[in-house]
Amino acid sequence: MHKRLAMLVVLITALTVSLAGNATAITGNYQDDFEHDYVGLLVFYTTPDPVTGDPFSHRCSGSLLSDRRTVVTAGHCAEGVDQGRIYFQQSAAPNYDPNAFNGWGGDPTTGYPYTGGVTFHRADNYGFHNFEGFPENKDVGVVILDAPYTTPSGRYGVLPTVGAVDRYAATTSKKQDLRFTSVGYGLSATKPVAVSFRKRLTANAYLVNNTAPITEFNLKTTANPSQGKGGTCSGDSGGPILFPGTDVIAAVTSFGNNAVCKGLDFSYRLDRAPVLDWIRDPNRVDAG
Fold first, then answer.
1. Per-residue pLDDT tens for 196-220?
2. Element at 168 (helix H, strand E)
3. How many whole angstroms separate alpha carbon 27 and alpha carbon 218?
4. Closest listed residue to residue 224, CA positions, set 246, 206, 197
5. Given pLDDT bands bounded at 50, 70 and 90, which one contains residue 35?
6. Is pLDDT of 170 > 60?
7. Alpha carbon distance 36, 57 (integer Å)
8. Of 18-32, 108-122, 271-285, the least confident
9. Is the pLDDT of residue 261 over 70?
10. Cβ(165)–Cβ(178) under 8 Å?
11. How many Å apart are CA 120 and CA 259, to the nearest integer?
12. Which neighbouring-strand residues pair with 28?
């Protein structure tokens, strides 16, 4: 099972796992997102549970590009799995029933997480494996849909140009003025209980640092709810961190600095030539 991962000082630990019936969204001052309809809720399948027969492994978020088949997500989402479904509804499971689908849990009206949506049988990993090489953890993945999907809005995620984050950061010395938009389907709270709407939510954060060694590879943004801000949580992994007012994906949600989804967020930057070349290569090597 896969997680949105947490960093405690230098030690890397894992957050609560995302489960079918009680998965661990955007936090703080978030709102329902009906705008970014190219962002979908990814469900991954693995070898069925030997007792229950349930094939559900984990869920993440991802952004569909303009070819209508390529979905960019996090590497830890695509690690060791190759098939699943993606749901592009803003509310992917409005009638979730823990007793549906033979007791596995799901929404019979949308089919989440076992029917409906758009299927895929290919998920490539840039090379993420348990934070090896940190801070260059290679936490980006790609899912290829079995059939093209056209968004109602006609909008799609856009890959950044090389160095886009640094150019944006250079426009002002006030980091709090450098806003980013996060989108995803994860938890909105973890304690005292996990709160999961299985909805596409969005929030705004601002840049904390783009020059420290870790931030050469990982965008560092605030997750605190003050001043109208919000952050990410479990299930948001792979969702886009967008340049404000655009569909350009600066980074994909990767990990946080604590298990209660507060403080700081880290997302894997896409604005580097090797990463962009890998995403765009139809013959890309699946390193995980």
1. 678 898 888 877 766 666 788 998 8
2. helix 164-169
3. 20
4. 206
5. very high
6. yes
7. 25
8. 18-32
9. no
10. no
11. 31
12. 230
Mean residue pLDDT of the chain comes to: 82
Collapse the DSSP code of 241 into the 3-class scheme (helix H, G, I; strand E, B; otherwise coil) and give the result: strand
CA dihedral of residues 143, 145, 146, 151 (deg, nearest 10): 180
pLDDT of residue 243 exceeding 70: yes
- Domain contains 152: yes
Backbone conformation region of residue 128, classed left if phi is above 0, alpha if psi is from -120 to 50, else beta: beta
How many separate domains does the chain show? 1
Residue 87 lies in a domain: yes
Q: Which residues pair with 253 in a beta bridge?
A: 267
SS3 78: helix
What percentage of the chain carries pLDDT values higher than 90?
Answer: 60
Question: In this structure, what token pair is assigned to residue 189?
Answer: 């709270």
Asked, for residue 27, whether it belongs to a domain, the answer is: no
Q: Can you tell me the distance from the alpha carbon of 150 to that of 67, in angstroms, rounded to the nearest whole number?
A: 9
Nearest CA among 62, 85, 82 for reference residue 122 = 82
Q: Identify the H or E element spanning 209.
A: strand 201-209
Domain CATH for 148: 2.40.10.10
Domain that holds residue 44: 37-156+273-280
Query: CA 121, CA 195: separation in Å to the nearest integer?
Result: 30
Which of 16-20, 88-92, 189-193, 221-225 has the highest mean predicted lDDT (pLDDT)? 88-92
pLDDT tens digits for 40-65?
999 999 999 999 999 999 999 999 99
CB atoms within 10 A of CB 224: 17
Q: Which residue has 């995980």 as its token pair?
A: 288
User: Does residue 70 lie in a domain region?
Assistant: yes
Q: How far apart are CA 213 and CA 209, in angstroms?
A: 10
The pLDDT-based confidence of 18 (bands split at 50, 70, 90) is very low
Q: Under a CB-based contact definition with an 8 Å cutoff, are residues 237 and 23 in contact?
A: no
Q: Which amino acid is residue 269, in one-letter code? A: R
